Amino acid sequence: MEPIRNFVIIAHIDHGKSTLADRMLDLTGTIEKRKMKAQFLDQMELEQERGITIKMAPVRMSYKNHILNLIDTPGHSDFSYEVSRALNAVEGAILLVDATQGIQAQTLANYHSAKSAGLKIIGVLNKIDLNPDHIDDIAEKTAKLIGVKKEDILRVSGKTGQGVEELLDAIIEQISPPLKPETNELRALIFDSVYNDHKGDIAYVRIMSGTVKDTDDIHLLATSTNAKAKEVGIFAPELKPNKSLSAGDIGYIATGIKDTEKIKIGDTVASHKNTKALPGYKDPSPVVFVSFYPNEASDYDELLRSLQKLHLSDSSLFYEPDRSEVLGRGFKCGFLGRLHYEIIAERIQREFDIEIINSFPSVEYKIKKNNEEIIIQNPKDFPDDYDVSWQPMVQVEIITSTDYLSNIMAIARSFHIDDIRTENLDDQIILTAKMPLADLIRDFDDQIKSASAGFASFSYKLLGFEEGKIDKLEILVAGVSVSGLTRIVARDELEREGRKMVEKLKDLLPKQQFTQAIQAKSRGNIIARETIPAMRKDVTGHLYGGDRTRKMKLWKKQQKGKKKLKDRAEVHIDPSIFRELLKK
């Protein structure tokens, strides 16, 4: 194991992780020049388009008689669970800092995670080709954060390759090889997985002890599943078969298992069931809940299969069957944040070709009614009458320059931000505050970026539940509650949000042959109303001259017919109208 070095690249979003990984692949000859392209490890079309890493990407490189196993990780806080899993599979981390921006919110969060995992951390400044001002100051701050000398902070350019060779040398010199295992018994930690139609469930593993070869019998401890290794191999970065994987290696095992529920992230692969399991991962708790419904009812089973396959590679995705009176059968899904939910929704449409409609994003609430505490994940289950309500709170950490502090403080008033504290970080301010998670998943990110001209960054962590002044907002059309539009809203925003929704619905809903009342309701009271008048049809148009009595008879008959139609009318809300209503 002496020539093996396992490491991750961690950084704030857009600090150049994937570009630096490209140069490493280039310099080590892992990828042929003619095949090289930008963001090579970001194989997902969505990653290429958005310019962000969504899934961790492992790759094996050879350099100066050493094997370097790199895992490129996402930078956005919604995908911090991906980062935490990668940290458990390696011995070292490159903490990458954009030399033009300096330390950002996710830089700090990732640093603390790597430190807690006991990894050797190498500080690196990226984008030095831009000759940024104050680069020495940023190097000093980074050194102070890590606890090293300023000259120990390496300087590279992922774009030009400057300094990357020196970084590879530092990885070999400073990061320890894997520890020698105490046993030769096979134990491998599953840190990720994907599904393949031909090979079944493919487990991405770090071999902690022992050896595994193809055709070996293996046992998955968490699900008590026996299987045979159909193929073992390494990441080159595509899956490349290898004769075997041994202690210290990072690679994959194709299990041939077709049931996606049998593979669990954090499980231990062993040679027999009596093996002691490795410490796994704490299951992530979803914080944002959105219901997905297929546009075509016949796609329900396909939607289920797509969620099963996505869950295999993303264990933080939660789903269970759900039903809506308007949209039919679907699934209530749980996510780690708003971006996480948006990415999954887009992947379902692109990778599985399923058109979906989703409900409003919501969070989990707790209420107390008749001395019983109840957890509410679906807004339609929130009662009008209760004793106490609690909502999830988060602590946000915003890093901004002093120039934009007043703008950001102005935003606080519209987001129920509380307990604001500031701390100086040389020429920057770290602003720490508490706010409801429901406010965070609205458009807080966009507002912060807008208020700071794109320069401020933030990270957050869950604090738990606190008592909150919140109520259910229902939308009724022709007297019928539309469950897909039900939301939990802060009490001081009920009237404004209700008014906004009924006005929008009035513009979107088509006229019917009867009058439609659109109402916003909370705690049994109507707080906003709009009316769509009935379609007008001139039933007397064919008459001319003569006695008015005949016209009156026809008008009364028409009114009577409209009243009867209204009494038994069912309003159908087209999926396209739902899409318009659910736009941010």
UniProtKB/TrEMBL annotation:
GO MF assignments: GTP binding; GTPase activity; ribosome binding; translation elongation factor activity
Record-annotated Tr-type G domain positions: 2-179
Membrane topology recorded in Swiss-Prot or TrEMBL: Peripheral membrane protein
The UniProt record lists the keyword Cell membrane: yes
Pfam families: EFG_C, EFG_III, GTP_EFTU, GTP_EFTU_D2, LepA_C
GO annotation, cellular component aspect: plasma membrane
The EC number(s) this enzyme carries: 3.6.5.n1
Catalytic activity, reaction form: GTP + H2O = GDP + phosphate + H(+)
Transmembrane segments: none
UniProt binding sites for GTP: D14, H15, G16, K17, S18, T19, N126, K127, I128, D129
InterPro entries membership: EF-4, EFG_II, EFG_III/V, EFG_V-like, EFTu-like_2, G_TR_CS, LepA_C_sf, LepA_CTD
Keywords: Cell membrane, Elongation factor, GTP-binding, Hydrolase, Membrane, Nucleotide-binding, Protein biosynthesis
GO biological process per UniProt: positive regulation of translation
EC class name: hydrolase
SUPFAM superfamilies assigned to the protein according to its UniProt record, in alphabetical order: EF-G C-terminal domain-like, P-loop containing nucleoside triphosphate hydrolases
UniProt function note: Required for accurate and efficient protein synthesis under certain stress conditions. May act as a fidelity factor of the translation reaction, by catalyzing a one-codon backward translocation of tRNAs on improperly translocated ribosomes. Back-translocation proceeds from a post-translocation (POST) complex to a pre-translocation (PRE) complex, thus giving elongation factor G a second chance to translocate the tRNAs correctly. Binds to ribosomes in a GTP-dependent manner.
PANTHER family in the cross-refs: TRANSLATION FACTOR GUF1 HOMOLOG, CHLOROPLASTIC, TRANSLATION FACTOR GUF1-RELATED
Family membership: Belongs to the TRAFAC class translation factor GTPase superfamily. Classic translation factor GTPase family. LepA subfamily.
Annotated NCBIfam families: lepA, small_GTP
Protein name, entry field: Elongation factor 4
Lineage: Bacteria, Candidatus Liptoniibacteriota
